[in-house]
Design brief:
The protein has four helices and no strands. The chain is mostly helical.
Amino acid sequence: MLSNSSLNFSCIDSNVDLYNLFFSIAINILVVVLFLFFFDELVIRNFWAFVVILLLGSVGLGSASTVISAIISKAGMKNSLFTVLSFPVLLPLIFVGIEVTAKALEGEEISKMLNDMQLLLAYSGILIPLSFIVFDMIWEE
């Protein structure tokens, strides 16, 4: 039988983080394909900026989901708690993501969207290490 001391929780967190990342990328790509299929008038004028934004938003969504799920994993009322905790954490990502996606759809240059892209990157850059710290602390208890 394995004891708690022999488990490597950072390995579990890496797998959860990767799963959330790939799942959010897959869902976002599916949604984009469905939007392009059902809305004929939707044209992505700056495709590469849109792809970068999609990837940065997916990484932010996946890392935020990992942090929140680690916090909720030890709670009693798990059903409604994810929604309540994720709303304020994901709100900056949603606002910036909507704004910069609209700019990419309108065809603005990447240089005009650079600040928003840096904000999306910084958001993920903060949440990914935070997920490792929080996940280890919670699972060790």
